[in-house]
Specification:
mainly beta; single chain
Length: 251
């Protein structure tokens, strides 16, 4: 999705007002740029071409006129094997890695890969030519006493998707492509051990993600915050922590 840019028109605590000239969605993730720092936030109110954003970082130094960039993505949590052994802050930064990079005090604008950089044993449960629908399992990955299902993207709206290729049972990196789905000759989708749904490619175009797959969206995987009985408290990072916790409970 095309990114939309705008500029800051006001600051009140962790609430930033901004103005844009493009399409904006509620709950869309955006960044306020201050020098080399990019401060993460979320759109919570839209009024014409003006929006209000809750910033999940300290807002010291933000000034009227600073650039704001919206990503086109909704509030999200990355899911994948290795989460069970990690400790995260409210923005899903792994705290041990964060301490190695920043010391004992959190630095704003720092966002680390939440999925451990390691290999996992993958076992396929489909074969080339099999028909798949959104949410169908294409394989599994064990982690301790748990078995994680690797599922087809939840945005496969059309029928006719089939497995073009799938890796044999073996050990693969968490970002490696383990399955490729196709719908005729016009559409192609790759899927890795940790992944999310993405916009289906247009006819005549293919989409690959062999080296990197974007984070899994909590809403894409049906792990919405509405399924949690906890009311998100106020705070810069506490609300994001509640979203992460609610998502993990339904993983």
């Amino acid at each position: 999705m095309e990114k939309v840019t705008g500029y800051v028109t006001g600051v009140n605590g962790n609430l930033v007002s901004a103005r844009f000239s493009g399409s904006v969605r509620k709950n869309e993730v955006g960044f306020v740029k201050i020098g080399n720092d990019r401060l993460k936030g979320e759109v919570i109110r839209i009024s014409g071409d003006a929006v209000s954003m809750q910033i999940y970082e300290m807002t010291n130094g933000i000034q009227v006129g600073d650039e704001v960039e919206l990503t086109g993505e909704l509030l999200s949590v990355e899911l994948g094997p290795g989460l069970l052994t990690q400790v995260y802050d409210g923005l899903q930064n792994p705290l041990p890695k964060l301490a190695e990079q920043c010391g004992f005090f959190l630095e704003r604008g720092v966002y680390l890969d939440p999925i451990p950089d390691k290999e996992w044993e993958f076992t396929p449960c489909v074969k080339p030519g099999d028909a798949v629908l959104a949410g169908d399992a294409v394989g599994s990955v064990p982690e301790g006493q748990f078995t994680h299902l690797i599922m087809a993207p939840f945005d496969l709206k059309d029928e006719g998707w089939r497995v073009k290729s799938v890796k044999e049972k073996g050990v693969y990196h968490v970002r490696s492509t383990v399955a490729v789905l196709e719908n005729g000759a016009a559409k192609s989708r790759c899927w890795s051990i940790s992944g999310r749904r993405g916009a289906a490619p247009a006819a005549g175009k293919s989409r690959t993600c062999a080296r990197h797959t974007p984070p899994a969206k909590a809403r894409d995987w049906k792990f919405t915050a509405s399924r949690s009985t906890t009311t998100p408290p106020n705070g810069e990072r506490s609300w994001r922590t509640t979203i992460c916790h609610g998502s993990m409970c339904w993983a």
